[in-house]
Amino acid sequence: MRASEKGVLDSSTLYFHVASPSAKRMFFYPICTGHFYCDKNYEVNRSNFDNYLILFVIHGSGFIEIDGKEYALGQGSIAFIDCHQQHRYYTDQGWEIRWLHFDGPLAREYFSEITNRHAFIFSSDQEMSILKTMERIFEFFNNGKKYIDEAIVSNQINNILTIFLVNSPSPQETANRQSPLKDTLYYISEHIDEPLPVEMLAERIFLSKYHFIRLFKKEVGYTPHQYILMGRINAAMLALKTTSKSIKDISLAYGFTNESSFCTTFRRFVGVTPRTYRLSHSTNENIT
Asked: What percent of the chain has a predicted confidence (pLDDT) above 70?
């Protein structure tokens, strides 16, 4: 059936399922499943939905908020959510997602075990297997069959949960993979002598400029501008110590409009002028 929620585009589809009494006793069973294309107005904010949710971000990006904490969801992210508690998820610029609400006699036990071992947001190396399995579950309903084999659907859900359980990274690995800023910090370090507009950095990880700056400050402790500026000063310090380049050339090489601006900024961060720093730290050696 067509979705009618705010922010959900016309090409989106969802299906509901009424599980049989035997499925409720024995199986994992779907409650509803969908394939959504959403614009920036899409938001879900619930206090209780009495089931569990698997949400896969195919394209775009968004955020999930649980226990007052907000987490970024990028392309390929998979969220496993206990919908019995307050939760909110949304996109501020649009995304394509597949999702599955399900329950079952062992659903709570699986959720507790998985989230005790790992985080509730995954970026698994088996993400395509998870996506294909979610597609198969969706197609059981999309094909218009009058009878759904609940045992087979249960097995498909169990396959996803098994991947979560045995193939997910450790909590620290998950945190490192999940942060879209890990790649950004590496990119900045590799391109510190090039223009690094915040808009471009945000677009690289599918975030709006506003949310990129907020997430960056939260995770790194500095604004993107401050971090880039410090990176350029650090690079300039190394150049002053190990090369014979002029101060003017160094200032231009690391993104400063002129030597005067560079000297003012350098002194503010380092406490001395570039010339004084060079005289007291020069090694008279070049680094190759």
From this structure: 90
